[in-house]
Structures are given as structure tokens and as C-alpha cells.
Amino acid sequence: MRFQLLGLLSIADGEHAAVLQPSKPTSLLAALLIHSGAAVSTEYLVRAVWDTEPPATARAALQSCVLRLRRIFAKYGIANDAIEAVPGGYRMRMDRETLDLVRFRELVRSADSAGDAETESHVLREALALWHGPVLANVASHMLHRDEAPRLTEERLRALERLCDIELARGRCREVLSEVWDAARRHPERERFSEQLIEALCRTGRQTEALAEIRAVKERLKEEFGIDPGAPLQRLELMILRGEDLGAPQARSIAAIEAGTASLPALPSGTSGTSHTTSPHPTSPHPTSPDDDLLPVPPAAPVPPSAPPAQAPVTPPVPAVPSTIAPVAPVPCFTGRTAQLASLHSALTTGGPATRPVVISGAPGIGKTALALQAAHLAQEAFPGGCFTVRMTRADGSPLDAAEARAQLPPLNECGRRLLVLDDAVSAEQIRPLLPSPAEGVAVVTSRRGLAGLIATHGGVVHRLDTLDPEESHHLLISTLGAERVAAEPEAARELARICGHFPLSLRIAAARLLTRPGLGIGDCAGWLAADLPARLSLADEPLMSVPGVFGAALRRLSPELREAFVLLATERGHSRRTPPDVSDEVLERLADAGFVEEGPPRPYRIHELLKIYARRHETAPPRLRIGTTATPG
Q1: Which superfamily is assigned to 171-265+272-292 in CATH?
Q2: Residue 328: CA atoms inside 13 Å, Cβ hemisphere, count?
Q3: Is 363 strand, coil or helix?
Q4: What is the side-by-side order of every strand in the sheet holding 84-86?
Q5: Quick one: pLDDT at residue 535?
């Protein structure tokens, strides 16, 4: 058994991971785990659970929350004394095997004492891999988000900054570029990530983009805070503009990194660290040339008579294609969707529709993202500017706004058109500001919604996905499990596909279980899954690979009216083609748009069988379990 705090708060027992629903017991558990090993006062726990409005009987209510947590723990074999009552409060004792936060901190400490940079880098990567999204994402406590989440996030960001410094010092500029790019976009308030990104760009021959990044940072700091960038960034800008060599990164010592100098060469004496540049808007469609707005360069330091005359270094040319644009890898074991792939390839690589957005919609878990990424892999040669994916929702399911999404994209380059994959969009309004012009490229948008409004205003190509057909499901199992294993139990394999509802997500989860258990028969696996669908269609070590989790997250996006209508349709219709009289056509259309029902006028509406099973469990579960995953404390 272990608790996972670095992301969605959950309990894992080796076979299953239960992601806890936002609730008072969940807030209580989070407060105890954050202070693992310490006695946490009752007063602090009351504030963590009820914020500024505790009930008159808060102490008794807190004891009730503890009892509810202990009941949940009992289901996973967690000892009744895991939560200790101590004078004035409660305590939970965790170690590296039972709490990921403890393991993270121990790994960071061991990295500090590593004897070499390679070992330190490896240990830091192991520590950072324990994070699976924003901390406390499913915890409702405002106090914990205000007081504790920033502190925990700071620990992660310090480790990430240090890892990137080490990788730059080792000369692994190309390898670390994507990491610092993502960090600089997600955390613009931390200037060090911007410095690392600019240094990595410059060292990989992309001086124009490095200068554009500097100017974007300067403008943002000026507009938002009225300040200039710090001295390291100003020194770096001057060195790039003067064409000076940044120095061999391999020669930089770890001691210099620990001193916080970032190993940037010192400017010659007499240079100034102050800049007075006017900068273009950070979202300008084309990076400006360094010659557009040169800084005044102070005179260089005098050269001693014995030294040979200095020669101006030559700035390396910007390559025609940025060498750090990674190719789009094929989706592992991708199967089926032949007609859709052909149509997508035509839309992305020929004129006409290539100038318009491409929308891939359908039910949750139906394979929209996999199809979009496979299409991007096949069409990538038509986009010399690169292919980039932006997840349009956060870990908690809330949507990004256009500015946040745009910040995750690198600047436009001079190499040509690029392909954007905007994944899991929630509305047309969210997407419109991000659509590239025909000259800039094309966007592929995946969404559970049909996005008819986007198509009405911008045109484009639409692909509405249904489940795989039986043969496609069979081939997916062959491609993942191997032909020999499937051939040994062909009928069981087809039964497994039927139990999985022919949903690609379900099939991949089932296949992963079989691959990690070579002695498990396909028929045995099918029977085990069928005994508790869809709860058993999940993986303990990957919360995102969970059918009930995906269905529950999608259902939570609906209004209460639509949730109630969906459950009514799924549980009362049975196999009837008639529509219950108390569900209006408007509600049906909205459910169809959200991906929960298919077809519609003039054809009858229908619901996928796996969604029906989920809805029946949702209807019969206790109220505290209704729109969640495998467990919740209330």
C-alpha cells in the first residue's frame, strides 16, 4: 500500500489505484500526509478541512472524518493505527515506500551527495518522475492550496532547475531543450528557466529565437512588474548580440552550478548590465532579427600590449530547419481507422482543406488523441516548421485559456508551416484564437464535443469516431499481445474485445495487464474484468489509464441536468430505441455533442454499452461514489 500525493491524491495497493474525490476527509488526509511523521494540531486540521468556516462542533466532526478515513483504509488493508491520535492532534508516519513525497525528498537529498554529474542527473530525474500533475489537484482545501501547495511546488521546481543546469553543464543542450522550453512556458515567473531556455537555444545555433525569447521576457517583466530582467539574462543578451562565445559547456564545473552562477562567462570589465531595448510583443508571428533593435554596446576592455589583437567571433548561421525539432513518433501498436487516416493525410498534405482546422470528436476513451498523433506522424514531412501538441485541459479537467495554451508553443520559425495538435478542447471559443493562418500551418483539434460552431465559422474537416469494429479490436490485441498468444485463445480474445466495448482505451488497459502477467490466460482475464466492469479497467501505476476515471472526468464536465439525463437514458432505455418522454430533444442534442450518445435525428439515439454499464454503476452507487473513480471518502 502506498499514498500518492504528488499529483492526484490517491491510494495504491499494487493492483489498483483509488483516486480520492474532493471532500473533507480527503483534505484531512492531505494535511496529515504533507506533515508526515509530525504531530499535526487539531486547530490546523480544522482550518485545513473547513477553511474559515468551521462548524460549532468542529472537533467532533474532525473525529468523524478520521473514522471515515479509517474505513477507507480498511478496504486496502491499511492498519487502523495508520492515523495516530496524539495529544492535541493526529499524526501519520510514512516512509519512502508508503508516500511518494518522502521518497522524492530522499532522492533529492541523495542527488546532492552524488559523486558525479551523471549520477546526480539520473537521481533527480527519478525524483521528478514521481510527480504526475499539479499537487493537491483533487483536494478542495483553500488553505492547503494557499499555504502548502506553493511550498511543495517550489521543491519540485528547484529540483528541475538544478537538473537543467546540470544537463546544460554536461553539454546536453539539445536533449534538455524541450524540458526548459516547457518549464519556461509553464512558469514564466521563474527567470532562471528563461535563462536556461535562451542558453540552450543559442548553443544549438538558434540565436534569432534566443533573442526573440529575451525580448519577450523583457516586455513581460516591464508590463507586469515594471522591472528589468536580472543581471544574468542581461549579460547573456549582450554576449549573444556581440557574437561572443558562451564558452564550452563541458568545461563548466558542478561547483559553479552549486554556487548559483550558472557558469555564464563574465563580461569583460567596462561592460554594462543595463539594457534599454524596446521589444516586440511576445506573440508576434515572426521572431525579429537581432539587427532590428541592437543594444548600445559599451567599449570593450583594453587589451594588454602582450596579447594578440582580438578577432570578432563569427556568429554561426541559423540552420534551415531547427535541429531540435524532434520527429513525431508513431503511436505504438496503432490499429484500424484506415479510412480516417487516409482522409486526414489528404486534408493535412494537400491544398484546400489543409488551410482549415481538422476536428476529431467522439466519446471519452474512443481513441481521438491516438488518431491525431498517428496522423501527425504520417504527415510530418509536409510541415518543416515542426509538429507541436498542446493539451487544452489541466490535470483537474479545467480548460486552459488561449494565452496559457499559446505560451506552451515555441515561436514561429522561418522553416515553413507547422502542425498544431490541440488535444482535448472543450469549446470553439477556446480554439479560435490559436488557429494558425494558412501560411503558418494547420491545426488538428481533438474534442469530446462536435465543435460545430468552429466548423460553421472556419470550415474544415470533421471525423466523428465510433468504437473499433470486432476485426479492428482483434488486430489491436494481436499487435500488442503478439499473434502467437492470441492464436492460442482466439475466441477468448474476441470475448475480451467485446467485454472492453471495443474501446481502444479499454483494450490497451486489458492488454497491458496481460503483458505484465505472462501466465494469465486471455479467457481468465476476460472473466475477471467482466465480474466488475468498468472498475477493473484501470492500471494501478497510471491514474490516467482508467476507464472509470476517464468516464467520470467527462461526466463531471456536464451540467447536473445533463448528468441526470444521461443516467436516465443509459439505465432506463435498455435496448429500446425509444426516447424517454421526459428527456427533451435539446438535452439529447447536447449529450450527443458531448460524446455521451451517438447518432440522432433522423436515426435513433444510442449509447455505447460500456457507457451504459458505467451509468448503471453510477446510478446504484452510494452518493459519495457517484461521479468518481474506484473509491472516495465522502
Answers
A1: Tetratricopeptide repeat domain (1.25.40.10)
A2: 25
A3: coil
A4: 40-41, 89-91, 84-86
A5: 85
Beta strands at 441-447 and 418-425: parallel, antiparallel or unpaired:
parallel
CATH class of 338-464: alpha beta
Q: What share of the chain in percent tops pLDDT 70?
A: 80
Question: Which among 291, 173, 298, 186 is positioned nearest to 235, based on CA atoms?
Answer: 298
Grid cell digits, residue 236: 547573456
* In the block, residue with C-alpha cell 533573442: 211
Whole-number pLDDT of residue 144: 92
Half-sphere exposure of 302 (CA within 13 A, CB side): 3
Report residue 158's pLDDT band, with 50, 70 and 90 as the boundaries: very high
Burial annotation 384-407 (CB, 10 A radius, 16+ → b, else e) = bbbbbbbbbbebeeebbeeeebeb
**CA 596, 632, 73 angle in degrees (round to 5)?**
150
pLDDT reading at 193 higher than 70: yes
Q: Is the pLDDT of residue 227 over 80?
A: yes
Q: Is the pLDDT of residue 558 over 60?
A: yes
More confident residue, 156 or 317: 156
- List the Cα angle 72/77/82 in 5-degree steps: 70
pTM of the entire predicted model: 0.49
CATH topology of domain 1-159: Arc Repressor Mutant, subunit A (1.10.10)
Grid cell listed for 467: 468504437
